[in-house]
Amino acid sequence: MNKKLAEVLAEVFGLRVAEIQPELQKCDVGTWDSLKQMDLVMSLEREYGIALDIPDILRMTSVAEIMDVLQDKGVDLGS
Asked: What is the mean pLDDT of residues 17-39?
């Protein structure tokens, strides 16, 4: 799991970094609602210097999907 991404997700969702795993899904996180989704989008755009469009945003329903979207945008999540 990429440390920088885990830190961003933990901050957005109010979780511990250790709780952020690729298997984590939106339905598993009580705080992951539509407002947090937009907070997530803004945080990812700011952190990685990317622009996310509506299909990307709708696709991000798990940590694994977030990682896929970021990689599709050219973000290197190697470490």
From this structure: 96
| pLDDT above 90: residue 1 | no
CATH topology of domain 3-72: 1.10.1200
Q: What whole-number distance in Å separates Cα of residue 27 and Cα of residue 48?
A: 25
Distances (CA, A) of 14 to 44, 65, 68: 15, 19, 22
d(CA 55, CA 78): 24
Q: Taking the C-alpha atoms of 42, 38, 64 and 18 in order, what is their torsion angle to the nearest 10 degrees?
A: 80
Residue 1 CA to chain centroid, in angstroms?
12
